[in-house]
Fold this protein.
Amino acid sequence: MGTAEQNEIRDADGRVVWDLDAYGFLDADCPPTAHPSLWRQSRLARGHGLFEVVPGIYQVRGFDLSNMTVVEGERGVLVVDPLISTQTAAAALALYRRHRGERPVTGVLYTHSHVDHFGGVKGVISVEEVAAGVPVLAPEGFLEHAVSENVYAGTAMSRRATYMYGAALPKGPRGQIGSGLGPTTSTGTVTLVPPTVHITRTGQSETVDGIRMVFQMTPGTEAPAELNIHFPDHAALCTAENATHTLHNLLTLRGAQVRDPHDWARYLTEAVQLFGAATDVVFASHHWPVWGREEALAFLSEQRDLYAYLHDQTLRMINQGLTAPEIVERMQLPPALERAWHTHGYYGSVSHNAKAVYQRYMGWFDGNPAHLWAHPPAEAATRYVDFMGGAGEVLRRARQSYAQGDFRWVAEIVHHVLFADPGNTEARALQADALEQLGYGSENGAWRNFYLTGAQELRHGSVGTPTTTASEDLINTLTLDQLFDSLAIRVDGPRSWDAEVTVRWHLGDGRDPSTLRLKNGVLTHVRGLGPAAGEPDVEITLDEPALRALLLGRAALADLVARGRARVCGDPARLAELTGHLTEPEPDFAIVTP
């Protein structure tokens, strides 16, 4: 229907957070530096603008990694999955309004707990509008998982997401050409408005601004909290991220909990059973719709068979005694599934998904006692290189393998030289060349981005981590228990072995006190009084906002006391002693070198 008039989407400081023209190079023929199938996928996914799914349902695509869906109601619109950043979401809504009129947002729906489906919410609606009655719908458990995934291990995930999405790579035939799921991640402001309406069961119906919806709960599939939505008045099924035009991840390369392909397949069967007879179009929060009942049901069934096959065949080979690396070399999809473009591994892959199934059932250990107590990478690498005759001999042979096109082996063997001697410039250059060639040949967008980002960092050093999901809104949404947990994972265990500090918090409002106790290198928290809480070294009375500001380092205890916002009974230095045992995460840790 049209696209934005301005190519660049900027934040308040003028920084570009999204460039609609960045992928214009994909209009050319596929170069030798890209897999033709991934090039085609990226070209399809980069198309940006406002698209009609059916009359009354529209999508803005190409404005972020994900799609934003707009469903027209009686007075305004329901916004489904408002992208990653407020800036891209606001631009998407502005584009819709330019073509469809100035309709107010009368509801917001998050399909699941990943940041590309809620982060831009304050670009389409304000906290004040929600307080005035505009509903925000989400699956049960959404808030817990949205917060925990992006905060607890958020630093490590953000670092690895830099590799996975190629956010620091130049866009072009030799660099980032997409992620397979969409272009890449925007780099604007991540926000969160907590849901006000919770979807708790399959079959639950809700009507927002005259828009009728029937929900199917799908927890543990693509996200821990996720749902599908049927719009009966439009004969349309939104599959969130449970059925898209790619093999998805059972274990995303940025890191997450392993997903359950058995349940994933079961829920897709259930979706066909529940809604198939009343569905003429299937659309998702990524890629493009499938129109026609017969085509839609075939699409859902093939997606179902894809995850079921990977699950069942991996287990079959596990029970034949094969290990994960052996399974992935033998795993091959049935010809009928291989012929379906939407089953190709543009984002997930047969290789790392089969490993994920192995991990889900068997864990990290393959049963071979030789692998039970292996040396860590740097120490093992030093021994490997010594056994192989030294770095010079390893590199000589590796260059021969490179000339033969065995880039996979070069990457594996030169890795040992690098971890034994990170300053070896010959090894860095050869490893970068090998990773680059592996990236150019990859059909999987995430694999390409990992390889090319690794090559870039070997040649030029780290470019940092452009994005972080642990935004202020997400941190502010932590429950107190989650906030205490987030402190516990920052304790330097060895340095605090001999420490013993107990701090009790009194928050008023009739709530039981909360006690933080550091002992044996473990920070525990207990609500109420009793044996587990112990006796405090210091007691601090304050309200919850002051407590949050104190624990997040936004306020000092002495200042709170001076302003009358806190009272202290006992030695306030004990709190400083406790917080002195906390460490800061490292957002730019090394990946391709030790």
